[in-house]
Amino acid sequence: MSLRSHSRAVVTVVLLSLVSMKAAPATPTGSMLDARYEAQLWTIYAQTPSLHACDISVSVEDGKAVLSGTVEAAAKKALAGEIALRVAGIQNVDNQILVRADAAAATLAVENSDSDGVDDASIRNDISSKLSWSKWADKMTVRVASHRGFVVLRGIADDAATRDLASYLASTARGVMSVENRITLAARGVAAAKGEAENLD
Description:
The N and C termini lie far apart (94 Å). This protein is of the alpha/beta class. Strands 1, 2, 3 and 4 form a 4-stranded mixed β-sheet that branches. Strands 5, 6, 7 and 8 form a 4-stranded mixed β-sheet that branches. The protein has helices spanning 3-23, 30-47, 74-85, 104-115, 120-133, 160-171, 190-200, and strands at 55-61, 64-71, 92-95, 98-99, 140-147, 150-157, 178-181, 184-185. A hairpin with a 2-residue loop joins strand 5 and strand 6 (150-157). Helix 5 (120-133) crosses helix 6. The radius of gyration is 26 Å and the shape is elongated.
């Protein structure tokens, strides 16, 4: 190979190397990923009707999310923690959010402004849809009533965890001001109760 050909080949290799280096995407560092997770959580909380008005702070370090602030109900604290756990990349959650009754007034004032355009029929339909499409639907039969955003749940559930889940799902519906859970536990299970009702028909 001539010197000119050799030089041309070297230049080509160098240029290709430079292009490859420029095109290669930068690998996110740990701090960059943590910042991304924080931003993702902030966005989700801001778009969640039952949480966007709450005083919640988020800090992520090495894949561990620390939640702090105050909410007016234990269900909202649990919801914030559950959302964080479902974010891909979050390994564990330290939920330090405090539940304080006096936080309700501040949250209610903000939620009132957002719920003006939501009628009770829409609230009932939204909650009923959430309950019927949940994977626990077979474990509960629930009737939903709503008056100006104040929701009452009636019916039966297999266990206390399912009953509490119904409250949580109802609280996430847009326009909901509060949830009163009057669901009772079925002695023989919801499936058995449904079967008996069908036999009577």
